[in-house]
Design a protein that fits this description.
The chain is α+β, with helices and mostly antiparallel strands. Helix 4 packs antiparallel against helix 5. It contains five helices and eight strands, in the order αββββββαββααα. The protein is 71% helix and 14% strand. It folds into two domains: 96 residues, Sandwich (Jelly Rolls), CATH 2.60.120.10; 162 residues, Orthogonal Bundle (Helix Hairpins), CATH 1.10.287. The protein has a four-stranded antiparallel β-sheet. The two termini are 40 Å apart. A hairpin with a 2-residue loop joins strand 4 and strand 5.
């Protein structure tokens, strides 16, 4: 049969330029033969239409939905004024029985489209797997870096804790020395009181001579000098305590920061692991679809 004979077995359709014959996802109960003009078949991906086939005079399309009863796998739109012939299942079976050459052409067309679809699926799958592999590798590196940061922070926290312990020991030693000096000052105060008492007794005995007062005065002066010296030492020790305690505070603050960094790094791992889990699920789904 020639095109005119084949067209006589179907329903004639005339469309203007840019008109949509059917949309992706529509139900389909007919296939079509292009008599005049052209048709573009496109699919939607990420809100964009991608042209996957351009059909001209003598080409068939739409046979998949006619044969399996599934929705249209793409959108058909005219490029220029177009004339088509539509065939339902009855028309199609009649043509297959009466025209072996046409049946062979349609089978070849189906085979070619199936092959192209397989190649398209393989390409998409390859890109998806490549993308997933890249993301998995990137996330694995991020996890590795986060873990290293946690380990480094933990090591620094351990070092700071050791420094804190050493400074605390030094503070205790300084406090012990201060206690010794304070005990000495207490003894001085006691002796000073005793000397004062003795001076009073001596004064009552000496009367106008008062030689003992010179000796008492000298002793009190010595004790006063010693007390003054110890007071200076106490001030120095107190300053040392303040410095050490400041260092303790700094180390403690640094340890707190490291602990916060460790906690933050640990929390950062959680969404990464979740994303890896989702990607793993996608890989499983892709494998299932093969």
């Amino acid at each position: 049969m020639n095109l005119d004979q084949i067209a006589a077995a179907g329903r004639m359709i005339e469309l203007r330029s840019g008109q949509v014959l059917f949309h992706e996802g529509d139900e389909g109960h007919e296939m079509f033969l292009v008599l005049e003009g052209a048709i573009e078949i496109s699919i939607e991906q990420e809100a964009k239409l991608i042209v996957i086939a351009k059909l001209s005079v003598g080409d068939f399309f739409g046979e998949m939905s006619l044969l399996d009863g599934l929705p249209r796998s793409g959108t058909a739109q005219t490029k220029g004024a177009t004339k088509l012939v539509a065939f339902n299942q009855v028309n199609f079976r009649y043509l297959m029985q009466t025209d072996g050459e046409l049946a062979w052409r349609i089978m070849r067309g189906l085979s070619s489209r199936i092959r192209e679809k397989n190649q398209e699926i393989a390409q998409r799958l390859g890109k998806d797997l490549q993308y997933i592999s890249t993301i998995l590798d990137k996330r694995a590196q991020e996890i590795s870096i986060a873990i290293k940061q946690i380990a480094a922070a933990a090591a620094e926290i351990g070092d700071n804790q050791a420094l804190l312990a050493e400074n605390i020991i030094e503070v205790k030693e300084v406090s012990r020395k201060i206690t010794g000096f304070l005990e000495f000052i207490g003894k001085v105060a006691t002796k000073t009181r005793m000397l004062g008492l003795n001076a009073s007794i001596e004064a009552s005995r000496a009367g106008e001579y008062g030689r003992g007062f010179g000796i008492v005065s000298q002793e009190i002066k010595k004790l006063s000098d010693l007390s003054s010296h110890n007071a200076v030492e106490i001030v120095k020790l107190t300053q040392t305590i303040e410095t050490k305690m400041k260092m303790v505070g700094n180390f403690s603050e640094d340890s707190t920061k490291k602990s916060m960094l460790q906690a933050s790094s640990t929390q950062a791992i959680v969404p990464v692991v979740n994303e890896l889990t989702i990607l793993a699920a996608n890989l499983k789904q892709l494998a299932t679809n093969l």
